[in-house]
Amino acid sequence: MNRRRCAAAATTLVCALAVLASPDLLNRAYAAPVPPPAASPSASPSAVAPPPVELPPGTTASDIANAGAGSGSGADSADSARSLEKVRLEIARLYRKAASATDAYNLADEQVKQQASEVADLAGDIVRGQQRIEALKAQAGAAARAQYRGAGLPPEARLLLAGDPQLFLDGVGRIKQGQKATSDLLVELTREQEDLKTYAADSHTHWDRLKKTRDRKEKAEKEIKKQISAAKKLEKSLAKKDRERLAALDRAEAARAQTAWLGSESTFRARGIGLGATAQGAKAVEFATAQIGKPYVWGGAGPSSYDCSGLTSQAWLAAGRPIPRTSQEQWRQLPKVAVADMRPGDLIIYFADASHVAMYVGDGRMVHAPRPGRDITLAGAGSMRILGVVRPDA
User: Fold this and answer.
1) Where is composition skewed (Low complexity) in this entry (predicted)?
2) Active site annotation includes 368
3) For a FRET experiment, which of 48, 130, 275, 340 has its CA 20 to 30 Å from that of 212?
4) CA 83 to CA 75: how far, in whole Å?
5) Environment class of residue 132 by beta-carbon count within 10 Å: exposed (0-12), middle (13-18) or buried (19+)?
6) Which of 206, 202, 200, 203 is nearest to 115 (CA)?
């Protein structure tokens, strides 16, 4: 009996040890959570980015950070890191939308100024036309009064009644001159009246265009404020330590992208990272770098604050070369050059919608006004996805 009990106990112990020694169970109990795959340092920054993380309306950073937390401390850390990355991508998405709206606002603002000037010019033309018509009418009235003073007789009849042949001949010449002057007066009066009608019609058309452009400008302004407010709200909902971690994530991502960009542009690196600046380009760089430390303000074009395209357009204006006001128009209108050939003063256009622009300053760096809440600064030229490069003084 004792021998059978000992054998049963031994069998139970062996089975228990076998279960505890199971690799799958040991892995579940002791293995550290597998970190998310790191981005390859050789990945090209021009590769297609993952789709933006769309969050439900009203979502805060705390909601994201508290979602999907695991039961172990390692799982908590990994989930927290992934949640913070979602917050970072969402904030970047909101500021990108604000940047696109800022470009629309700036374009509408430029058009409002131009169209308002055109309306003012047409109003001046209408006033001058009315004054000219009044003057012509006065001349016509003077001619009519002169005829009345001649007892209503036409000039030809008065000449026939004259007894002096020489006086008659001289009068014929004056009659022809007077008839031509009267004819010219009537033609000019008719032309001025037609011009006045055209001015009035053009003024109405231009005024309608101006009103529509102002509406677009107001709509863009509301969109800017909406996106910036949402981004700031999301940032403020983070704890202080998480905001610090978020800033560190931004810096790390920018450094990774810059390293990958420098590594992918072999031709660019082989040529000593760009060409030398022209005289105008050097002036533009000097102006832009002198603004470092000033705040980003959407719609800003100096002297105390700038947005991204406000900085680049004012820098080139200071260099004597006016360029379009917005990053999208700079990309559309200015001559394009290869990234490998860019030189200081060239403008680097970022993102597929050309919603951001910076100025290349040499040595693989650029100066730019990043986004609301940040100041003008130097950064790696490849720290964001490059769409292309344009050259104002090509």
Assistant:
1) 61-80
2) yes
3) 130
4) 12
5) middle
6) 206
Alpha carbon 254 to its chain's center: 21
* Type and span of the H or E element at 366: strand 365-368
pLDDT in tens, the chain (394 residues): 444 444 444 444 334 334 333 333 333 332 333 333 333 333 333 333 334 444 444 444 444 444 433 334 556 667 777 889 999 999 999 999 999 999 999 999 999 998 998 888 888 888 887 887 787 777 777 766 665 555 455 555 555 545 555 554 455 455 555 556 666 677 777 787 887 888 888 888 888 999 999 999 999 999 999 999 999 999 999 999 999 999 999 999 999 999 998 887 655 654 555 568 999 999 999 999 999 999 999 999 999 999 999 999 999 999 999 999 999 999 999 999 999 889 999 999 999 999 999 999 998 999 999 999 999 999 999 999 999 999 999 8
Short-list 245, 255, 256, CA closest to 38 = 256
Q: With beta carbons less than 8 A apart as the criterion, state whether 145 and 260 touch.
A: no
Rg (alpha carbons) of the chain, rounded to whole number: 39
Positive or negative, the Cα torsion across 164, 169, 174, 175?
positive
Contact 357, 298 (CB under 8 A): no
Of 33, 11, 46, 31, which Cα lies nearest the Cα of 339?
46
Given the residues 15, 204, 206, 368, select the one marked as catalytic: 368
99 touches 355 (CB < 8 A): yes
CB 358 within 8 A of CB 368: yes
Active site residue 356: yes
Between CA 102 and CA 105 the distance in angstroms is: 5
Which run of H or E residues covers position 56? none
Q: Are 330 and 312 in contact (CB under 8 A)?
A: yes
Measure Cα distances from 174 to 136, 143, 303, 382 in Å.
Answer: 21, 14, 66, 82
* Residue 6 bears catalytic tag: no
Distance from C-alpha of 301 to C-alpha of 306, rounded to nearest angstrom: 5
Using the structure block, give the residue that is written with the tokens 């001349």.
139
Closest to 328 measured CA to CA, from 345, 353, 292: 353
Angle, helix 73-149 to helix 165-236, in steps of 10 degrees: 170
At 98, give phi and psi (nearest 5°). -65, -40
| β-strand partners of 389 | 337, 348
Q: Tell the burial category of 248 from Cβ atoms under 10 Å away from its Cβ (0-12, 13-18, 19+).
A: exposed
